[in-house]
Amino acid sequence: MAVSLRGCDELIPREEWQRKLARSEATGVPLRIKLGLDPTAPDIHVGHTVVLNKMRQLQDLGHTVIFLIGDFTSMIGDPSGRNTTRPPLTREQIQANAETYRAQAYKILDPGRTELRYNSEWSDPLGARGMIQLAARYTVARMMERNDFHERYKAGNSISIHEFLYPLMQGYDSVALKSDLELGGTDQKFNLLMGRHLQQEYGQEPQCILTMPLLEGLDGVEKMSKSKNNYIGITEDANTMFAKVMSISDTLMWRWYTLLSFRSEARIAALQREVQQGRNPRDAKVMLAKEITARFHDAAAADAAEQDFVNRSKGGIPDDIPELSLSGAPLVIGALLKQAGLAPSTSEANRLIDGGGVRVDASTISDKGLKLAAGTYVLQVGKRKFARVTLA
């Protein structure tokens, strides 16, 4: 129960889950724990791993975890939290994304002890007759209690009939898999409860549901999202990953520890007390950054990323930076930054110069009209972008 409750938002119903755990312990039969993700984008970010971490924790206790890829439900599109209809993906897009999801999920879950399933296995054979029979097990009135549907209807925004099918199909996944527990974000509560309802309709013992909070992104305000550019992609290079973790606030760090670290709560509490008693919070943040980086790379890459971060913070030049050759000397600094790939445009390069964010051979540049003659230069933009350019 302690592992289940760590960092969770809700466990519904708690008493039922406790009974399931006790029965599992008494019989030696592991519980079936399900997490479904729709492959609607090609990559998973660290925010997605909050529920995957919980799966791994329960997997390590000996239970059966089912990583369900929603290749069928992706074609409908999850309406959760949306005020417009989500455009459906093609089967080709879904298949390509599903392959990357599988590979990325196995960076956290133990592949040898994970049941990998695709919901097209039972959804495609359902057919029109089965879909109608399934739809008969829920009412429109209950469906309209869902917040996003209710708000869209009240605002006069359209709701397509196929969107009603999404929670039904996600719930039917729980029937097909006979799950004991389903995990999801807080925005998935309606869909998870649908699984309980449909399992009862089909004569099964209903699953419990465990919702995890949505992880705040690097800004500490909005939930982690690629569209808000406040995310850490789990396929990002080690140096970038480490530096991004180091950029979060000292306050947000502790929430990330609870939701992302595999350290025990007792160890985290002890570390927090040390910081309160005067230890530099940067030490704790380095430990978190190294743990996360090592999880998606390895311990050696995490150590190297720490050293790279130290070098950059001291104004030093990392050992491994891109090298390229350009022609056109003498070249104005803004054009040089654009051609070197350190700025998307000359105007953006000039804006960076105005902000004091551009260095040439460790010297800060303030003159946007500076022309560089033929030679080799180390260009730096911000704290993390470098290039060694030979200009001819």
TrEMBL record:
Q: Catalyses which reaction?
A: tRNA(Tyr) + L-tyrosine + ATP = L-tyrosyl-tRNA(Tyr) + AMP + diphosphate + H(+)
Localization, per the record, is: Cytoplasm
Domain named RNA-binding S4: residues: 336-375
InterPro entries, per database record: aa-tRNA-synth_I_CS (IPR001412), aa-tRNA-synth_Ic (IPR002305), Rossmann-like_a/b/a_fold (IPR014729), S4_RNA-bd (IPR002942), S4_RNA-bd_sf (IPR036986), Tyr-tRNA-ligase (IPR002307), Tyr-tRNA-ligase_bac-type (IPR024088), Tyr-tRNA-ligase_bac_2 (IPR024108)
Q: Which GO terms describe its biological process?
A: tyrosyl-tRNA aminoacylation
Gene Ontology terms, MF aspect: ATP binding; RNA binding; tyrosine-tRNA ligase activity
Family annotation (SUPFAM superfamilies)? Alpha-L RNA-binding motif, Nucleotidylyl transferase
Top enzyme category: ligase
Q: Which UniProt keywords apply?
A: Aminoacyl-tRNA synthetase, ATP-binding, Cytoplasm, Ligase, Nucleotide-binding, Protein biosynthesis, RNA-binding
| Top-level division of the source organism's lineage | Bacteria
Alphabetized Pfam families for the sequence: S4, tRNA-synt_1b
Biological role: Catalyzes the attachment of tyrosine to tRNA(Tyr) in a two-step reaction: tyrosine is first activated by ATP to form Tyr-AMP and then transferred to the acceptor end of tRNA(Tyr).
Subunit structure and binding partners? Homodimer.
Query: What is the name attached to this protein's record?
Result: Tyrosine--tRNA ligase
Source species: Ramlibacter henchirensis
Q: Gene name?
A: tyrS
